[in-house]
Amino acid sequence: MGETIKDLEKKLEASTKSSKDYEQSIEHYQLKLAKAEHDLDTTVSRLANLEKQNTAYASEMQSLRNECEAAKKKLKATQERYFSESDRLKGIIDDMQDEEDEFVRQITEFKLSTCNKDTEISQLHAALAQATNGTAKAQNSASSVDHNEMESLRKECDAAKKKTKDTLEKYFSESQRLKAIIDEQQDIIDKAQNIKETEEKMEATRIELAQKNMQIQSLQYDLYKLQDKCDNEIRSLTKEVEWGREKLGSLKLEIRRLKEQDSEDTISIIRGQPVASKQKEDSEVGVVSNVAIYSLKAKVGKLESETQKLNEKVHQLEREKATLSLLNTEASNKVTQLTSENKALKTHRKKLMEEVQKVKGGEDKLKSDSGRRLPEVSTETLERDTSVLGVSSSTENIPAAEGKKLPERKETFQNWLSGDAAKNMFQDEPNQCANQ
């Protein structure tokens, strides 16, 4: 009897010790379960935040897509306006080129008429020289001359000298005026060349804009694919979270079952019945929960990396959008600058037309003046006089004044005149005109 009591006491101590071990293992599993629940709640909250963040990113991407569409429409309108303005400016430049050719033709005609006038002036000089020689010859043969007729001839010679001097002054003034017009024409040609260079730059800018537009379309396509991939990942993670919740519920049920089993084992130990070990099952349950949590963490990390890549793509798209806006602004500024230059060229063209009309009027006046001829001088009625000798000396000085070369200007008209032709064109020496 005493041995039976001792055996029972030993069994009771063993069962008490085993129950304490079970209680410790249950507390350990409860702590692990609480930690797993905390990790799962944290993961769920992070997933919820990621869903909110992805929703915000989706709305932001939609707004960026709308802004890109608006920028594309604005770019298309700007390109159409640029093309129309470029065509209009090209037409204006062609018209200006035709006007320049017309101006060159008029200047050539004016130079030819100037050469003819030089020839007429040379003929007048020869006539005056002959008159002077006739006067010298008639000095020995004339015996009596009417004083009134001599005075009239003297006045006629003075008038001829004055008229020749005025003609030369008009010739030189018209030559200077013509050179000023040629300088202005060269300035217009330089501006036209600058406009051509600006058009080439605008063409290069248009090509660059087209390339940027293609890049934006490619980025939009990549963004669309990333958004689909992100949506698929979100759906997959949502399913994983639901599965984790279901697994958590099953783990809670398993814990309850273990608690009930523990109480039954305690009763069995008290009764002396053998107790089945559940440590293996408990370890298997803990491993499954840890694997599920680690899998969810890996999914969350992958989603975060995808979100980071998506953010980088969004920032890159924003930078491309800013670059596109700058290019649009630059193109608009170029169009405005070309328009202002076109207005200035129109104003300058009007002034040149007025100058050409003035030159034509001066040319007609010179023609009318050169059409008049000196009256015939009777050598029999001339006598020796100091005034006549003064006329002869002044006529000798006129060719010397004509012999002075005007400063030669080197012009380069690359679009309508070669260098040799321009050099021959701007040589205004009267002797050369006489040779021609």
Structure description:
Residues 150-215, 293-355 form a coiled coil. Residues 357-386 have a biased composition (Basic and acidic residues). Keywords: Coiled coil. Residues 1-21, 357-410, 417-436 are annotated as: Disordered. This protein has 436 residues and is mostly helical. The protein is 89% helix and 0% strand. The protein contains six helices and no strands. It has helices at residues 2-141, 147-271, 279-371, 386-402, 419-425, 430-435. Helix 1 packs parallel to helix 3 (279-371) and helix 1 (2-141) packs antiparallel against helix 4 (386-402). It is rod-shaped, with a radius of gyration of 55 Å. The N and C termini lie far apart (161 Å). Mean pLDDT is 68; it is low at 275-285 and 373-436.
Biggest β-sheet description: none
Ranges with pLDDT <50 over ≥5 residues? 275-285, 373-436
Distance between the termini: 161 Å
The average pLDDT score comes to 68
Q: What portion of residues belong to β-strands?
A: under 5%
Oligomeric form of this entry?
single chain
Structural class: mainly alpha
The coarse overall form would be: rod-shaped
Q: Supply the number of helical segments.
A: 6
Radius of gyration: 55 Å
How much helix, percentage-wise, in residues?
over 70%
Helix/strand order, N-terminal first = HHHHHH
Number of strands: 0
Q: How are the SSEs ordered, and which strands pair?
A:
Layout: H1 2-141, H2 147-271, H3 279-371, H4 386-402, H5 419-425, H6 430-435
Helix pairs in contact: 1-2, 1-3, 1-4, 2-3, 2-4
Biased composition (Basic and acidic residues): 357-386
Region (Disordered): 1-21, 357-410, 417-436
Keywords: Coiled coil
